[in-house]
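HEAT repeat protein
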Amino acid sequence: MDDQEDPPPPKRQRFKHLTFNQLVASIGGDNAKFSKRLMHRPDDCELFFTEALTKWNDQSFGADYTSFVDSLPCDELDTHAQLLLHRRTIADSLLKRLQDPGSKSIPAFCELLSALVRDLKEDFHDDMWDFFGALTNVLDLGERDVESVEAAFYSLSLIVKVMWRALLKEFNSSFVCFIPLFGSSRPYVRRFAAEAFSFVMRKSSNLKKLCCQVVEQAFKVHDDHLSEGCAELFFHVCKGVVGGFHSTAEEQIQCIISGVFSIADPSIREYGVNILEQAVQLIVQYVQKGTKSDLSFLEIIIIKFMESSTSMASVNYSSRLLRLCFVQRRWKNLFSSEKRLLSAIEKVLVFDFFELCFEFIDFLLQCTVHVLSGDEWGSSLGSVYSIVISKKGDLSLVFHLFNNVVAVSYFNSHILPVVGQLSEKIFSEERSLIPSILKLYSLICLSRRPILDGLSKRRSPLLDSPSHKSIREYVLVVLDHLVEIEKPLAAYILATWPWIGCETTSGKSVEHVVHYIQALISGSDFSLEASQLALIAVSSLYQVDKSQLKKVEFSAVGEFVR
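Structure:
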């Protein structure tokens, strides 16, 4: 047996994910350099194509390349006029080789194509889309053929840079041809497409119209990868360099959002807003990773759209985008337009078309928890909440808001009085919501116990103000009928009872709770729900008058526990 080990397998060549900007930089990044490089002719010949042929003729590149060269009238390719004369022969032969999936000379053919584009410029227009499709197919090889993919990217970059006027003039057709790139499963392909096409879109004087066309065409395909690619496109339209943004980013973002919001078809518009959400997320992540930029310009743009809304749908679209800006960078909030945000919310609430809906209620919740949670905003938010509960719509939606803000520092002083107003309205107009308001009060009582109570072993009633009169009266009345009501409702009442004020310690209310505890532990219901309810009742009685626990028979408790 041969003791020698097999040699290690050769290292796999990795694909360098060059961006469109990096590829363009390799041929002259800015317009001046690019134009100079494009117009600079080879020293010893008139054509870039002839120079490329000479280069690759000196290399052994297989039968594919040799066959291609043999098909050309090489002796008649010395001048630009001769190239135009034989353009059809050259283009057809080159396209045939690029479309061959078994071709071994793709890098050579891509370089020849790039040279042909540089020579023909606008005259390349008639063949542009055929070659674009062929290059797209080359990219489908992915990392299986690294050199071919890199060469194809370079050729595509050159085509976009040279032919941008034609791409812009036929924008709809151009975008449709780019869809395979935007919808690619490979992130680097989508990024390339976004960077390349954003270069074209920035040249337009009607960006708003182009954004509508992008969304409408993407909607016809309805692919997740395509929507991600479109979001990257919108992002790269405004993205700058070194962590910054394009000099006209503010105007561009306004056009993009305005274009999507103006789409007439609700289904297409909703699809467009989903793309906008992804684009805003990319902008936010870009700012989070950097150190130079902030989100203030984006915040103000979206807030302006919210303030100029003409329907609740428009308000909700803006709120969906704005809430994405509620992020942190190095544990510090990036959102800096708090006053403008509060002003926008107040303006929205006075719109004639405003009505309660879950989207806006949830947005207000996110504003409270993530942006306006400091004590300085308590008074203003209290006024906002008071207006909210007076608006038309499904009043039950406000419980999503109140149930999730009990932990904010100013809840007791500014939000709790509004809860009292809500309870008065429910007991007088919306009695079907009584279980919901009881649940809210129980949550408040269980989570908002002052620290002083624990230290001094005293209770400071939370609900002794006039605004909570209805809930106090209801709890005291229902205490005598706990056995007759559903267990969840009884639990809410028992959790609230110790905190409603001086009426709590009255002999009758304590006696009712003692009787209820006795009924629970002596009954035949030993379910987990019954056990938890008994624990709540005992805990509440202990807080009010622990001496009354002596009236509960110990033997009955032992039997209940077993």
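Strands lie at 328-329, 332-333.
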